[in-house]
Every structure is written in structure tokens, then in C-alpha cells.
Predict the structure.
Amino acid sequence: MVHLHASVIIPTFRDWARLQTCLNALAAQTLPQDAFEVIIANNDPATPLPDNFAIPQNARIIDVIEPGSYAARNAALQIAEGPILAFTDADCIPDPQWLTEAIAFFDAQPEIQRIAGSIHLFVEDGIWTAAALYDRTYMLRQDKFVSNGKAATANAFMRREVFDSVGPFDPKLLTGGDHEWSMRAVQAGYALGYCPAAAVRHPARSRFTQLLRKARRFAGGAIASKRAKGQRIILPHFDNLLFPIRRGVLLLRSDDLTLWQAIRVWAVLYAIRIAIVGEQVRLTVFRGEAERR
């Protein structure tokens, strides 16, 4: 029997179709299938599994009632058996060498306890809408996260002892929990390495409504974090209503965007800032329910 090298952790919430694509990519890994396990943490047990859904032999699904992807990850981590813990999301597509490259990186650099892998955004129809360009410009910039000691859980690895020492993700957070956990790991002295060869592909959000939903989730997560810390008065960030001139100048100077693309991204940025203020008002003044999707 091949030694178990890694446990892959995937939270999911009503996303069976894209999860199936992710599992198909894991089934194509160059690392032998019996050398890793896959734990899928289903954060909506009430949603039935599709009839044609295929679960690999080295994978299992657990139901997690507590809301939030970080609560789901924690539940999976409690039963994970691999010495290396690998994280990705249901909408990600790992490259065939994803696990092999990460394990080789750990073997070659024993002083490294955490790894951030590269995240490449793509559009399924080949059309880079204004929303997709915004997503590519601002979201999941793993190469920049690493410089601050952070790793997005769309593509991250850690040795088991790091999790045992630092502790679980904060289950109360609906977003940003990977960054919060990373800061605890940095404070504990656990080194982070960047392994571009351990890559995943992530679909860019091509529709403005998708960006709004994520912005609402971030706004709700920030408010939940403040409430958890005992802050009684939480004011909406009304300064976000000011036009982001400095951001606009930086976009116009970007080598990755044409002039027209920069203007479109600028417009999306401002619309999202307005939406965040609206969400903050809805949650703080009217005590609405936070976005989870």
C-alpha cells in the first residue's frame, strides 16, 4: 500500500457541477490516487447530491451544519489523516502536477511549513467582461499575498503540525478567515513559501452580480468579525462613496489593461464600493441576514 501523503480539503455550498470538475482534475493527478485522500465538506446538507455525481474512491463527503466555509474546513481537518494538508475550493481546477509539486517543494525545503500555490484566473467563454477584468486585477493575487505571509485557501498547503499548533480557522468568519489564520501562523513563526508550479485554475467572475455577491459577503464577514470582538457601534464606510481617483490613476497606468479596459474596471470598482456601503447599512441599521454564497 502506498503511504498517504496528503489530505485535500474542499468546502462546498450548492456547487455540485463545479465540484465535479474539481474532483475530475484531482482524479487526473500524477500523484497516485491512494497516496492522498479528498474530504469534501458539504455546508448545505439539505441540498441533495445529484444523481449522476461521481465520487472518487479516495474521496468522501461529510455534512457540516454550522454555516461558513471555515467551519466546513475545520470539520474536515478534524478527520484528515495526511501529514500534508492541501486546500482548494470547489470551483478550482488543480493542474495534474498540483500535489506532486507541493510535496516535492516541502521535501526540498524542510524549513518551510506552509506553501501558497499559484492561482490563474480564466474565463470559460473566452470573453473578458468588465467584471472578469476587475476580478483578475484585484482578486486572488496569491503572489502578492505571499509577500505579507498570507495564502488564500483556494490553493494552500501546510504541514499537519502547523494546524495542530496554530489551531483551527475562526468558524465565525464568513470570509477572510484564510488571511486571519495566516496572520496567526506568521506570529507563531511558521515560514511560508511560494510554489508557482503547484497551480490551480480559478474561473473569473464574469457577471457583475457575482462580484456584488462576493462584496456583500466580505462586508458581512467584516461586520461579523467586529461584532465577535465586542464592538457595539459599527458605522458604514461612507467614505467609499467618494470617487476613487487614486485607484483610477493606477488602473490607467497599468500595463495589463488597455485604456478602455481600465475605464471599465474603474467603473466596476466604484459600483462595488457603493454596494458595500449599502450592504453595511442593511446589516447594521436594518439587521439583515449576511450573505453566505
User: Anything to note?
Assistant: The beta strands are 6-12, 36-42, 59-63, 84-88, 93-94, 114-122, 155-159, 192-203. The radius of gyration is 19 Å. The chain has a mean pLDDT of 92.
